[in-house]
Amino acid sequence: MGEPVLRVKDLSKVYRSRRGETVAVDGVSFSVNRNEVVGLLGPNGAGKTTIIKSICTILRPTSGEIWVDGADAMKNPRAALAKVTAVLEGNRNIYWRLNVRDNLEFFAGLQGQSLRSVKTYIDELIELFNLKEKVNEQARALSRGMQQKLAVACALVKRTPILLLDEPTLGLDVETSYELRWILKKMADEGQRTILLSSHDMNVVQDMCERVIIINHGRIVVDDRVENLRRLFTASAYRFEIAGHLSPQQQRKLTEQFDMIKISADGSRTIIEADLLDSQKVYEIIDVLRENGCQLDSVGKQYPDLEEIFLRIVKGEKQ
Ligand SMILES: Nc1ncnc2c1ncn2[C@@H]1O[C@H](COP(=O)(O)OP(=O)(O)OP(=O)(O)O)[C@@H](O)[C@H]1O
Ligand SMILES: [Mg+2]
Questions:
Q1: What's the CA gap between 155 and 103, in Å, rounded?
Q2: Residue 170 alpha carbon to ligand 1 centre in Å
Q3: Closest Cα partner for 164 from 45, 314, 6, 273?
Q4: Which fold has domain 235-318?
Q5: CA distance linking residue 282 with residue 301, whole number of Å
Q6: Which ligand is nearest to the CA of 21?
Q7: Which atom of ligand 1 sits closest to the CA of residue 13?
Q8: How far apart are the first and last CA of the chain?
Q9: pLDDT in tens, 86-104
Q10: Which of 22, 140, 141, 194 could cross-link 96 (Cys pair, CB 3.0–4.6 Å)?
Q11: Whose CA is nearest to atom 6 of ligand 1?
Q12: Is there a contact between 181 and 208 (Cβ–Cβ < 8 Å)?
């Protein structure tokens, strides 16, 4: 489906310092189609920021190819930079002494857009980002959350085909985080943008992205639709609810007999979660519970959220 607007091929980045070498990105390849919203997920130090900085030509990769909307980012970074805008982690690249509207006009102008042609869009963005009351305030006088919203708005006003967001909701309060997610999702749903965003927050990725790329130790471990991942992991995850608590002997019996089992107390009940590839095992567990006089209240498949999937994949990788 669709046409790739961003292509990354065999991207590697080795940081060299006096203390030695760090392989931050190790042979990463993926592409993003026009109007797709893709999440980059990974633990600290996985290489997300390095990938994003390479795409927006701030960093020179050690090797690999990057194409942004037809422009070769390695050979012709200038042409590539005209196609992509990035909002980097913790770095609100807005002008402190300019007010909200001037910032937006400045970034629109950078892209060679005439003020007249972009005025309506700027008004829309101010409205959308709820910055109307602050439109004449200098950026430095805004709260952190508002500065972040302004930074994203300034990125949008450039109207490049690709938008890169590194941790867009980091450090925002819950409300502002939701607001920003809602705005970006709305833009994406209206098919106006191709977005690659990194986040630690699974909820952000789960809410906004149809596809997720999970990075660990500089490599891609998963690249799939969020929906597929959830279905895949649902197939083997079961949850048993039992009235009352299990005695240590009962617990030992279960954990000895079944490998992938997790027992936890939830108020007056006990929850058993099990990864069972063989569904026959479900009946075996039920039998064991019965033999031990446990009252089984319910058995069901678990529909895991992205956080669980992520933890399982990343944990599995380490072994
Ligand atoms: N300028 C640098 N010099 C040396 N090593 C670096 C530099 N920048 C990043 N690294 C290393 O490269 C690896 C990847 O870092 P990167 O910032 O890309 O990860 P990340 O996935 O963005 O992490 P986080 O979730 O913490 O933002 C880490 O091991 C990091 O220590
Ligand atoms: Mg980072």
A1: 10
A2: 16
A3: 6
A4: Alpha-Beta Plaits (3.30.70)
A5: 10
A6: 1
A7: 12
A8: 35
A9: 999 766 689 999 999 999 9
A10: 140
A11: 15
A12: yes
Ligand 2 (ion): residues with CB under 5 Å are: 48-49
Residues 60-88 as b/e (b if ≥16 CB within 10 A, e otherwise) read ebbebebbbbebebbeebeebbbbbbbbb
177 lines ligand 1 (CB under 6 A): no
Q: 197: closest CA among 232, 155, 227, 250?
A: 155
Alpha helices in 209-318 (DSSP H): 226-234, 248-257, 280-291, 306-318
* SS3 label, residue 154: helix
**Between 100-110 and 115-128, two packed helices, what is the crossing angle to 10 degrees?**
130
Q: Which CATH superfamily is domain 4-227 in?
A: P-loop containing nucleotide triphosphate hydrolases (3.40.50.300)
What does the pLDDT average to over 236-263? 87
Ordered by start, the domain boundaries in the chain are 4-227, 235-318
Residue nearest to atom 25 of ligand 1 (CA): 44
Structure tokens at 87: 């909002």
User: Across-strand partners of 242?
Assistant: 270, 296
Q: Which amino acid is at 269?
A: R
CA distance 27 to 12: 5
d(CA 115, CA 27): 42
Residue 36: burial class (beta carbons within 10 Å; 0-12, 13-18, 19+):
buried
Task: Of 183-192, 209-218, 301-310, give the lowest mean pLDDT range.
Answer: 301-310
pLDDT digits (tens, 9 = 90+) for 13-35: 999 999 899 999 999 999 999 98
